[in-house]
Amino acid sequence: MCGIIGFVGNQASAPIIIKGLSRLEYRGYDSAGIAVLKNNGLKLIRREGNLAKLQESLNYDEFNATLGIGHTRWATHGAPSEANAHPHLDCRGEIAIVHNGIIENFHELRTQLKKRGHTLRSETDTEVIAHLIEEEYHGDLFAATKAAVKLVEGSFALAVISSDSPGVLIGARKDSPLIIGISNFGFFLASDIPAILDYTNQIVLLENGEIAELSQKEYRIEDLDGNVVNRSSMTINWDAAAAEKSGYEDFMLKEIHEQPMAVRETLRGRVFGDGVVRLPDLGLTDDELKKIKKITVVACGTSLHAGLLAKQVIERWVRMSVEVDCSSEFRYRKPIVDKTSLIVAISQSGETADTLAGVAIAKAQGAKILAITNVVGSTITRESDGCIYTYAGPEIGVAATKTFIAQMTALNLLGLVLAKIFDKTSEEIIATAKELLSIPKKIETILSKTDILMDWAKTYHEANDFLFLGRSASYPMAMEGALKLKEISYIHAEGYPAGEMKHGPIALINPGLPIVVIAPKDSVYEKIVSNIYEAKARGGTVLAIATEGDQDIASHVDGCFFIPQTLETLTPLLSVIPLQLLAYNIAKLRGCNVDQPRNLAKSVTVE
Ligand code: AGP
Predict the structure, then answer these.
(1) pLDDT of residue 606
(2) Which residues are CB-neighbours of 168 under 8 A, at least 6 positions away?
(3) Rg of the chain over all Cα atoms, to the nearest angstrom
């Protein structure tokens, strides 16, 4: 997510904006910029890189003005660069905007604007909004912005100023947070509370579909239909550290709760109500993909677990062989790949050394490379023929959570698109595309009832060993559940395909060993239930992740966490949530630093 701040008042805006942007640096960004209105002209400066780079070139005397907007960019459309950094301007350089969100229909809007003679200077989706406001502007910036955002499909939080509207700051939002800050020396717009906590703790939340006009003395809010909104302010009692985590105790917990957003934003503009799935920016043509005879997934850690699910999904829908390998093995085993191979390289950071090395080897052997990553412009995107971006926003916690669920979302989309390209579409495939749209709400349902997971954590946080078992699409979740517990609580845990237990690991089971079994009502349900009986018969303590409405399983296990019903390849997007929260709660009870676990880095850029 990008960071937004705007100010209008009776103090110099540039220092306030820069300070506010510095409070948003923790979120991660790749470029920054500021625009102020001085002597009825816009002054603008943008730089790729960090805020320090921007400040090196910022002359505060030149930018001495009481109205301004600023932005830290986490790229979604258009690689990190000065030209793609915000603020963006209209043709005449009289309107400046900053934006957080994703404009779904920006391709069409760009085409229409160019046809109408507009000159667009960036690769971003954001810039189209500046030109739409320009077209709608007839002396009233509030009205022009309202008219412009009605043409936009997607998510946005905006701050807008214009050289023709001195002393006026406009804000508008839909599916992307924006708040108003109130002080005795002026008013603020911000995408996140930390940006303004140094100046005020009095805020007014803007709700979806609302637009605000701020001036030196007052502010007003309307909805997009023109109805006046009267909303009282609220006092924020967080300190700066708590505000960075939106009030959550840790970034990891905040990011677990951001997962509905991560799925929603990754689906945005790609899945439609009639079950149609499109990946407009895939970068590989249908003809190129039709030549593919074999798919190999390369990844590490949690991303490798997403790859294990990709195998289940793609083989199920496309009936094409999918091999999955950890990058550190793939790169040294002289892999058998050629020009009929597609390498799906999964890396949230896009910088993992082993995965990049595997990509280079496969590319040298003629394979096509498709990256799945959360970072626009990351190294892996520059080494790949195609890319599916996840839109989880910056992930601060070392343990991957929201980027993982976004990867699984993107890989389901890939499977559905490949099924269409290989003429494998079926009712089940169309149903899966439609069901994807209901997943964010189902995750929210799960997140609203997690008390039992704290009970489990209190009972088992002193265990020395855990087993995680699953079959089919739940097997990768067993692996991920074990990894989450290992990496943040330091408890030894093993993830296993449940059917493999009888080939040795069942010898591990002793009385009281906690065994987490992912047992949704799916095609292998009876098999996983028999594995539960085997574990119980040997004295294991079984904690089941089961499907709502499954009354049978509860009587056979020691604990049961229910997740909503969904389709088989989408169940992992739900079953992973309790696994993440169980690991988180156990780690907290053990006094571990969940955001920065010992020995771990967020991105392993070395071998
Ligand atoms: C995730 O919880 C781990 N911290 C780690 O395994 C991570 O998934 C792995 O290092 C791969 O990172 P990447 O997705 O950035 O390539």
Answers:
(1) 77
(2) 8, 67, 141, 142, 161, 162, 213, 214, 215
(3) 25
Is the distance from CB of 571 to CB of 520 less than 8 angstroms? yes
Which of 298, 302, 404, 598 for a ligand 1 pocket mutation test, highest count of atoms within 8 Å of Cβ? 302
Percent of the chain past pLDDT 70, that is, above it, reads 100
Q: Is the pLDDT of residue 34 over 90?
A: yes
Q: Ligand 1 pocket, 390 CB below 6 A?
A: no
Is residue 302 lining ligand 1, measured as CB closer than 6 Å? yes
Tell me what pLDDT residue 347 has: 97
Q: What is the pLDDT of residues 120-157, one digit of tens each?
A: 999 999 999 999 999 999 999 999 999 999 999 999 99
Sign of CA dihedral 417, 418, 419, 423: positive
Give 99-110 pLDDT, tens digit per residue: 999 999 999 999
Whether the CB of 307 sits within 6 Å of ligand 1: no
Which atom of ligand 1 has the smallest separation from the CA of 349? 15
Which distant-in-sequence residues (6+ apart) come within 8 Å of 225 by Cβ?
none
Ligand 1 pocket test: pick from 326, 604, 606, 607 the residue with the most ligand atoms within 8 Å of its Cβ.
Answer: 604
CA of 63 to the centre of ligand 1 (A): 42
Of 169, 215, 599, 535, the closest CA to residue 399 belongs to 599
Cite the active site residues.
2, 602
Who has greater pLDDT, 92 or 273?
92
pLDDT of residue 403: 98
Q: Whose CA is nearest to atom 5 of ligand 1?
A: 301
Within 13 Å of residue 234, how many CA atoms lie on the same side as its CB? 9
Q: Give the H/E segment covering residue 243.
A: helix 240-244
300 within ligand 1 shell (Cβ under 6 A): yes
Q: pLDDT tens digits, residue range 37-67?
A: 998 799 999 999 999 999 999 999 999 999 9
328 lines ligand 1 (CB under 6 A): no
d(Cα 327, Cα 300) in Å, to the nearest integer?
6
